[in-house]
Amino acid sequence: MKKYMPAAAALTVILTFTGACSEKPDNQQTVDPAPKNEVNENQNKKEQPKPEVPLPEELLHKTDEGEAVKKLEQALNHIGYSIATDGKFDAETTWAVTDFQMQQEMQMITGIYDESTKQALKKSVENNSAVKPAAALTKPDDNLEIVSNPHEVLVLVNKNHALPEGFVPKNLVVPNVQFPFTEDLPKKQMRQVAAVALEKMFYAANDAGLELYAQSGYRSYERQDSIFASNVRAYGEEAANNFSARPGESEHQTGLTMDVSSRDVGYKLVIEFGETDEGKWLKQHAAEYGFIIRYPKGKENITQYQYEPWHLRYVGPDAAKEIMQKGITLEEYLGAQ
Ligand SMILES: [Zn+2]
């Protein structure tokens, strides 16, 4: 995928990441999608009441280039998409056309800009009716690799490596540890290999006079999908992606992850947890049980997530010790992005 994000914007994005774990931003950080909306609103205001959005006359499809494609891209942006207006009918343009055709419930879903697509687009522009980008079809991402072996404990899952659609880990169990709630929720689960290690770690913390609480483990593809979709509805697709994991891109779907907290921070998933006795103990000892602090401080540009002292990921003791001793990320350990 082409990244059209200037460095300053990228930094803002990093600073506003919250969502590797929390379903809603938990630690007072909110994402403000205003700048993007303002642009759209201003455009609309400027062009009301009669928007002048020229539409290309000719049939256009993938691999086409030039002014006509650019016009098409501008028209698509006018009705709510935010694609590059580079005059290249690439995967992104094809996605927008296809997504639009699907939302219009057109007879021929082709990804090709033809006469009937033109008429539908014309109508949308005239009626000022905005579409919800990606409501029908997920936006493509050329950087995104689908993980081929989601079962290995060193699997890398991040914004560039997604789990296969519908992947459900085998041997999900509820670890015998403390949770700050009593309901029997699916998020209590972990893969057995990680659950056993988590229990040992919690016992050891207990021996050290500390009280860890497990907050959130396994999260299904479907659950992640509905969380992401509701964030898209609330904030728009691009903003949602900055603070909320797409389905398949959440490490919680591996079953190897548990968010952990303590009484001192009200069982919340907050940065202050790193400063509690429990948080400090975890940083020092988690690796002995095969866990790493997956999103360390100062590595936000690599993990693409903010510092999360509560998010523990099982990788096995051998890798965990090396990762924690060297103060590196799983990405760096695996030499991947
Ligand atoms: Zn988490």
SSE blueprint:
Blueprint: H1 7-16, H2 34-47, H3 67-78, H4 91-103, H5 115-126, E1 145-146, E2 161-162, E3 172-173, E4 190-191, H6 192-207, E5 213-216, H7 221-235, H8 237-243, E6 257-261, H9 277-285, E7 291-295, H10 300-303, E8 308-314, H11 317-326, H12 330-334
Parallel strand pairs: 1-2
Antiparallel strand pairs: 3-4, 5-6, 6-8, 7-8
Helix pairs in contact: 7-8
Bound molecules: zinc ion (ZN).
Q: How would you explain this protein's 3D organization?
A:
- The structure is a single chain.
- The chain is of the alpha+beta class.
- It folds into two domains: 7-126, PGBD-like superfamily/PGBD (Muramoyl-pentapeptide Carboxypeptidase, domain 1, Orthogonal Bundle), CATH 1.10.101; 145-334, Muramoyl-pentapeptide Carboxypeptidase, domain 2.
- The protein contains twelve helices and eight strands.
- The relative contact order is 0.12.
- Residues 1-16 and 24-48 have low confidence and may be disordered.
- The chain starts with 6 loop residues before the first helix and ends with a helix.
- It has helices spanning 7-16, 34-47, 67-78, 91-103, 115-126, 192-207, 221-235, 237-243, 277-285, 300-303, 317-326, 330-334, and strands at 145-146, 161-162, 172-173, 190-191, 213-216, 257-261, 291-295, 308-314.
- Zinc ion (ZN) binds at residues 20-21, 252, 257, 259, 311.
